[in-house]
Amino acid sequence: VQLQACGGGLVQAGGSLRLSCAASGLIFSTYNMGWFRRAPGKEREFVASITWNGGTSGYANSVKGRFTISRDNAKNTVYLQMNSLEPEDTAVYYCTARSGLTWDYWGQGTQVTVSS
């Protein structure tokens, strides 16, 4: 299984980025997908998740109203649209997949840096 995340970069505060995560080696349409992040010196934290059919999504309070998770099962890809970015959003962002209660697979991460 491979989860290949991309789309990170350097952006000014208030700007936007869209992360993508392409999955292979699994039946993508049967997996719930998520995004986590790890900021320098901090623990990894949950950002957003979406169910296998895209019917339900959830967000951390810190990103609610600014970030949107979506998926395209035909392309085996999950997205994270990030708007109104803040310096506190600076982190390595990881996509992950689960079929049960635990996150089974993790991508390699993509760096997002927000300058003030």
Biggest sheet details:
7 strands, mixed
> How many strands?
11
Number of helices: 0
**What oligomeric state is this?**
single chain
First-last Cα distance: 37 Å
Kindly name the structural category.
mainly beta
Tell me, briefly, the overall form. Answer: globular
What is the residue-averaged pLDDT? 97
* Poorly predicted spans: none
Task: Evaluate the radius of gyration.
Answer: 13 Å
Give, in order, the helices and strands: EEEEEEEEEEE
- Percent of residues in β-strands: over 45%
Could you estimate the helical fraction of the residues in percent?
A: under 10%
Molecular structure report:
Strands 2, 4, 5, 6, 9, 10 and 11 form a seven-stranded mixed sheet that branches. Helices cover 0% and strands 53% of the residues. 33% of the residues are buried. It has no helices and eleven strands. The protein has strands spanning 2-6, 9-12, 17-24, 32-38, 44-50, 57-59, 67-72, 77-82, 91-98, 105-106, 110-115. With 116 residues, it is mainly beta. A hairpin with a 5-residue loop joins strand 4 and strand 5 (44-50).
